[in-house]
Every structure is written in C-alpha cells, then in structure tokens.
Design brief:
By secondary structure, this protein is of the alpha/beta class. The chain is 38% helix and 19% strand. It has a domain at 6-167 and 201-226 and 262-303: 3-Layer(aba) Sandwich (Rossmann fold), CATH 3.40.50. The strands form four sheets. A ten-stranded mixed sheet has the order 3-2-1-4-5-6-9-14-13-15, sandwiched between helices. It has a two-stranded parallel ribbon with strand order 7-11.
C-alpha cells in the first residue's frame, strides 16, 4: 500500500520519526516522505542523514497552523500523526499550550486531511489516554476520540482515520532508559515508587504497528500492541547494577502502572495474535464484521495494564536490547 506513495509525518524529527523514516524507505520505497515539524534545527540535523536521498523532504510547520497543513498535505496519500506536547509535567504547567497542540492540532489535521483527499491517517496515542489522570492523557483521549469520529465527519470523502496506542517506548527521547544511562555514573538512581511497572515496546515495534494499522484499518480502530512489562526497579538494576535506588515518590500526574485498555473499553475490544483492537462506540461500528475480522472478543471486565500483564521482559532480554541499541540511545 505504501509503495510509491507520498507520506507525511507530523512531528517527524522525534524518536518515532527517526525510526519510521529509514524503516519505511527500506521496506516500501515510497515516492516521498515529508517531515512536517516546527523545529528547524532538528530538521537541519536530520536532513544531513538524507542528503543523497531525494525521497525525504522537509517542511517547517506547526499542527496549530491549519493553513500550513493544507499546503503541506498537497498530493499526500498517507499521514502519520506523531506531533504532540507529551511531557507530563510540562503539560501540567502549560495546559493551554498542551490543548492547542494535542486537541486543536488534531482538529486541524483531520479537517486538512479530509479536504486534501488523504487516503489514510494513523495517529499515535499513549497508555495515558486510557483512564487519564493527567492533562496530557486527557488531551490524547480527546485526540483519539476526534480521530475515531473523523471517519464519520469525513462524510462522502474517502479519508479514513485510525489510532495506535502503546506504552513506554524503550530508548525514546525523554524515556526512562536514556535518563538512567545518563546519570548511572552518579551511583544513585531516583525511583518514584518501588512497585511501579511499565510496558516495554521498541521503536521498531511501534513502526510495525503503524504499518499494520494502515493495512488493516477500515476506520475508527484503536490498535494496542501486545508487549511485555517490567518493574522499574528491575529495569534500573539492569541499566546500572552498581547503583543504589532513591525512592522519591510519584510525581504529579504519574500513574503507578500503565494501562492501555480499560474495563469500559472491554465491551468493544477484540484480541488477535499480536495485538488488541478497540472498536468505535459510535454508530454500529463495534459490530461491523469488516472491522472485527478474525478477532475474539475479550471477556467482560478485561483490563490490559502493565501490572496484570501475562508477558514480562526478562533481565537478559533487556540486556540484549541495550547491547544492540546503546549507540542509538546515546545519539538521542
């Protein structure tokens, strides 16, 4: 589907974009990938990697600017929406800015994609959008709802929207692994709570989930990847075996465990070999065979959270991942 196509990725200079672009270029050979973001220096640094590849283009812009989106989306077939204000404390202290990017930006993108005749749009979500307790999660839940409803909003147009949701992305900018690596020489790692658990997904797995969504979507689905969990104390012990742990308490807006599917979502959730799919509650889409396909409905009250997960990452699996990705993490 992506072969010889035109793809635009918002927030494309982030950790996800830096993985999505080379993987997609190699796997699908698109006609062009447009990096749409507002940081000119990050674009400048990224462009150095693709000086000999005319398929990668760069477009300065902000999802808050609807007119700029309309210009950037001219001739685009597929969109990956990765732009967001996502640091939890930053969102708490700058709520107006978070809403402008995560909610108003989503509205702008939906309108522009419909009017420009984009075929498929996949928006990146977060575990924090499931039963949100902080502003970032609340804005991403609103964004998810907007993209789901965008399929009805598009009317007679062919544009279709879906969402992918995953938890802690290993090695992504601002995540715990690069942070622990950067301070492990101090001999002390801050741990918010010794009971805390997190989902563990690689950037490559995140990209593959987006590819799957493009291929599988009918419109309105939320895809949740099946991934292992790990206790934060175990993660810290593997990253810095000699360091001691300083329990500092949970930060404002932080959850003890990550959750990606709530008990309320279970009524509309289906299970597949490698992922779950939350179907839309609007119209009759949750009972649509084209969306369900070969899925099995999860039991009533089902919750997919990092503490009740059936799959756990071993110390050796994390060490192997660190050995392979240490150089990449250092470049973040």
């Amino acid at each position: 589907m992506l072969e010889n196509s035109s793809i635009l990725i918002t927030g494309g200079t982030g950790s996800f974009g830096n993985t999505f672009i080379p993987m997609t270029l190699e796997r699908y050979n698109p006609r062009r990938i447009i990096v749409f973001s507002r940081d000119e220096m990050k674009q400048w640094d990224m462009a150095k990697k693709y000086t000999d590849d005319p398929r990668v283009r760069f477009f300065i812009g902000d999802v808050r600017d609807r007119e700029r989106l309309y210009r950037a989306l001219d001739g685009v077939d597929y969109v990956v929406h990765a732009a967001a204000t996502k640091i939890v404390p930053t969102a708490e202290y700058n709520p107006f800015e978070c809403v402008k990017t995560n909610v108003m930006g989503a509205m702008n993108l939906i309108d522009a994609c419909i009017d420009r005749g984009v075929k498929r749009v996949v928006a990146l979500s977060t575990d924090k959008a499931s039963s949100p307790i902080n502003l970032y999660g609340a804005t991403k839940l609103a964004s998810d709802k907007l993209f789901v409803a965008g399929n009805s909003y598009s009317g007679a147009h062919d544009t279709r929207f879906a969402v992918v949701r995953y938890g802690n992305v290993m090695g992504s900018r601002g995540s715990v692994i690069p942070f622990f690596l950067s301070i492990r020489d101090k001999g002390v790692l801050p741990i918010t709570d010794a009971r805390m658990t997190r989902f563990m997904i690689s950037l490559e797995q995140g990209v593959e989930l987006v590819w799957h969504a493009f291929a599988d979507m009918e419109g309105g689905e939320i895809y949740v990847k099946k991934i292992p969990s790990m206790k934060v104390t175990d993660l810290a012990r593997v990253v810095a075996p000699e360091a001691t742990h300083d329990i500092i308490g949970i930060r404002p807006g932080e959850k003890l465990h990550e959750q990606m599917i709530s008990a309320e979502d279970a009524y509309y959730t289906y299970e597949y070999p490698e992922h779950f799919k939350i179907l839309p509650t609007i119209n009759d889409w949750a009972t649509c065979p084209k969306r369900i396909k070969d899925g099995t409905k999860v039991p009533e009250g089902f919750v997919y959270a990092s503490d009740n997960n059936s799959e756990w990452m071993s110390d050796d699996a994390l060490r192997d991942w660190l050995d392979v990705n240490r150089e990449k993490i250092g470049a973040i």
